[in-house]
Amino acid sequence: MTVDPRQNSSRNSRILIVDDDPGQRSLLESFLRSQGFHTLMASSGEQALQLLDQEDDVVMMISDVRMPGISGLEILRRTRQQHSVLPVLLVTAYTDIRDAVHAMRDGAVDYLAKPIDLDELLSLVQQATGVATTKGVRFDANRQLPPHVVAESPRLQAVFRDASLVAPSESRVLITGESGVGKEVLAEVIHLWSARAEGPLVKVNCAAIPETLLESELFGHEKGAFTGAHAQRIGRFEIASAGTLFLDEIAEMSPALQAKLLRVTQDGCFQRVGSNEEIQTKVRLLAASNRNLEEEVKKGRFREDLYYRLNVVEFNIPPLRERPEDILPLANRFITQLTDGRARLSSAVIDCLRLYTWPGNVRELRNAMERAALLSRGELILVEHLPNRVQLPLSPQTSPQSPETPRLEEIERHAIVQALQRNRFNRTETAKELGISRRALVYKLQQLRQLGYEIDPP
Question: What is the value of pTM for the model shown?
Answer without folding.
Answer: 0.73
